[in-house]
Amino acid sequence: MITVKLPQKAEKLLADMARASGRTIDQVAVEAILETIEDWQDARIAEERFRDDDGARIPLEEVIRKLELREAAERRKKPAAE
């Protein structure tokens, strides 16, 4: 259990949002906190990947071509419909 003291304006905005969305204040607050935590985690992952970036890139056209070849090979493996 956690208790948070909000400024009066933030508390009113939170209550307005909850009412407008048909949710409770707790539901809106929990969702906002979880989204913020997920954003923070995503930023940490992005920073780590940026730090470890080796500079190698694959052109989009090559990725599409490889996917198309893979899909064609998978279609050939499936038996034809009777």
From TrEMBL:
It comes from the Bacteria. It holds the Pfam family DUF6290. InterPro entries: DUF6290 (IPR046257). This is CopG family transcripitonal regulator.
